[in-house]
Task: inverse folding
């Protein structure tokens, strides 16, 4: 989603000497400088010629935290930053809380009989096919249950007010991405309005230091710029969520399989490690 939005604002054509609109994300910062953005997970910002960064649009991805908690974090973030124009939330929730295989279960026995933790590719090859691409079941256990995924977005009103409970479709929209898609056109409508607001705000910031340039005809294409009609490739976002579910499922499997193998090794050590041992075996 960040690449699509960055491509959209890049087509606005703001000359580099006037600063740049850029996207920051946890993934980008971790790969470049080894730090996380924190709240939010993704941020569109304007970096002016002096190097000062002004936040414009914040997006949080909620997976481990509750939607209520993530919404409050975004609300607090927006309240303290008057320049911020919009916030969005991608909320991914597993319909059933995951639990590892029980001691003595068929799944545990299956993992005990496998002498090492499978690679990601090996694990996928053993997956039981399911009609839901999110569900990850292998070695007799479900490692990833079905999910729901929603996308919500809020736009600050022109008078500066902001309300997370706003019901005006010009300033708030929510859509379902999983298990079925519904309302995505409403979210795209608010996204486009947000980018139009970004355009106008960035132009106003540039005008404070370069009024003649902004008032010249050279800026007419920027003032007339409109966001693309098709803004977000929802298929790509859905695929990214499916990949994330697979990685989550594999991470759970690998952790439990390693734990089971260690427990089995300790039990064998107690059995063969010498007379009179009273070492207790651990339960998983």
Result:
């Amino acid at each position: 989603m960040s690449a699509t939005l960055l491509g959209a604002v890049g087509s606005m054509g703001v000359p580099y000497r006037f600063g740049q609109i850029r996207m920051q994300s946890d993934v980008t910062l971790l790969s470049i400088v080894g730090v996380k953005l924190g709240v939010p997970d993704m941020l569109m910002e304007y970096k002016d010629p002096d190097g000062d960064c002004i936040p414009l649009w914040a997006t949080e991805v909620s997976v481990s935290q509750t939607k209520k908690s993530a919404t409050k974090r975004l609300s607090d973030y927006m309240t303290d930053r008057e320049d911020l124009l919009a916030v969005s939330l991608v909320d991914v929730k597993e319909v059933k809380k995951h639990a590892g295989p029980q001691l003595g279960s068929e799944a545990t026995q299956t993992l005990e009989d496998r002498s090492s933790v499978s690679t990601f590719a090996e694990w996928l090859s053993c997956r039981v096919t399911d009609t839901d691409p999110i569900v990850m079941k292998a070695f007799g256990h479900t490692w990833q249950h079905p999910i729901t995924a929603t996308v919500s977005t809020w736009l600050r009103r022109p008078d500066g007010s902001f309300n997370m409970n706003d019901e005006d479709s010009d300033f708030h929209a929510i859509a379902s991405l999983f298990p079925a898609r519904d309302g995505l056109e409403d979210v795209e409508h608010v996204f486009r309005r947000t980018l139009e607001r970004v355009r106008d705000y960035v132009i106003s910031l540039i005008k404070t230091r370069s009024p003649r340039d902004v008032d010249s005809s050279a800026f007419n294409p920027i003032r007339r710029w409109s966001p693309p009609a098709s803004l977000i490739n929802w298929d790509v976002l859905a695929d990214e969520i499916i990949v994330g579910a697979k990685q989550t499922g594999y991470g759970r499997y690998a952790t439990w399989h390693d734990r089971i193998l260690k427990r089995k090794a300790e039990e064998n050590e107690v059995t063969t490690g010498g007379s009179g041992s009273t070492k207790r075996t651990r339960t998983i």
Summary: The CA atoms of residues 260 and 284 lie 7 Å apart. Confidence is low (pLDDT under 50) at residues 27-37, 275-283. The chain has nine helices and eight strands. The beta strands are 20-25, 42-47, 53-62, 86-94, 136-138, 141-144, 147-155, 172-178.
